[in-house]
């Protein structure tokens, strides 16, 4: 169950980062509220996952899901650039996440 909590926490990190961008520096009410609620839920699920997962593994995977997810959302929905170098960077993050999962005792 901890891995499910962790993946959900990472996906919520993508949600809050996207809505933070839409909040325009917390000047728009609805995106600001979604940002804060998604942050709280993400941190809560991360805390649940950390009950049984090692700190380094849980935190790295949480931030990795958020980083790669935000990268994808930026390209797909915000018109950010898609270059081979940026793609390689995202793939290296994913490779690191896979290695962490494969070497985890949980």
TrEMBL record:
Q: Which family does it belong to?
A: Belongs to the drug/metabolite transporter (DMT) superfamily. Small multidrug resistance (SMR) (TC 2.A.7.1) family. Gdx/SugE subfamily.
Membrane topology category: Multi-pass membrane protein
Source species: Spirosoma liriopis
Matches recorded under Pfam families:
Multi_Drug_Res
Q: Where is it localised? A: Cell membrane
Protein's name according to its UniProt entry = Guanidinium exporter
Segments traversing the membrane? 33-50, 57-79, 85-103
Signal peptide from the UniProt entry: none
Name the coiled-coil region(s).
none
- Presence of the UniProt keyword Transmembrane helix in the record: yes
Q: Which InterPro entries match?
A: EmrE-like, Small_drug/metabolite_transptr, Small_multidrug_res
Q: Which UniProt keywords apply?
A: Cell membrane, Membrane, Transmembrane, Transmembrane helix, Transport
């Amino acid at each position: 169950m901890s891995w499910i909590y962790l993946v959900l926490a990472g996906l919520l990190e993508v949600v809050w980062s996207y809505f933070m961008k839409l909040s325009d520096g917390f000047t728009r009410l609805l995106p600001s509220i979604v940002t804060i609620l998604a942050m709280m839920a993400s941190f809560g699920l991360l805390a649940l996952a950390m009950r049984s997962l090692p700190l380094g593994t849980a935190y790295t995977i949480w931030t990795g899901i958020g980083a790669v997810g935000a990268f994808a959302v930026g390209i797909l929905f915000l018109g950010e650039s898609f270059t081979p170098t940026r793609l390689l960077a995202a793939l290296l993050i994913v490779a690191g996440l896979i290695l962490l999962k494969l070497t985890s005792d949980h």
